Amino acid sequence: MGNIEWKPKKSSSLPLHLQIYNYIKRKILNGKWSIGMKLPSQRNLAKQFDVNRSTIIMALEELSADGLIESKVGSGTTVINNTWGVLASSPPPNWIDYVRSGIHKPNNNSVQKINEAETNPHIIRLGTGELSPELLSCNQLTKLLQMDMRSNLSLGYEEPKGSIHLRKTICDYLKEKGIETSPSSILIVSGGLQALQLISIGLLQRGSVIFHESPSYLNSIHVFSICRHEFIRYTYG
After folding, report:
1. Do residues 26 and 84 share a domain?
2. Do 25 and 64 sit in the same domain of this protein?
3. Interval 185-225: pLDDT, tens
4. Is the dihedral of CA 28, 30, 34, 40 positive or negative?
5. What does the record give as EC number (predicted)?
């Protein structure tokens, strides 16, 4: 970073620390002050901006609160990669102005026509996924509601742990292998990847060592991926 030729205007109604805050913020958001770049010391910044050190401290505190810089004792102040802080510090876009300045007209008329069509009973509303009244099985629903509710009525909802019949079958299979368990101790998952994810989060402790072939779909599990990167970093870093 070279010398800073810009200086805040002391005659401006905007406080000096806010002028400096806006200047540094623009430099960071425009990419001119890149991530990881070290800022000059507070004393040097005060000298280059021709202000008191307390003014620099106030400006840096505002930038740090926005997640744009980070100060550490012994390391100085650096620009950090805090994407959320950068987005939060930027004003939201004015979408109305964007629409007005575009080549396409606003869709207000189209929305009004859609709203009018929704009140028409002869138009099927595909956008909401509703069936036409003629397609509703009213007669079958009437017969269903009049049936003897003492009989078993299944709506297709399974228990949270999965199909009880499948869990009993798994218990019988495990029993042949010499493993005694109960259906309540078995959880059915949608696939092996989900099971590995549950194992990594619920059973393994932090720092557990995992060995697997590479390449492997285990890399798609976030926890295993972190473990692999940490292993490589500590082994070869």
Report:
1. yes
2. yes
3. 998 988 777 787 787 777 777 777 777 665 555 556 665 55
4. negative
5. 2.6.1.1
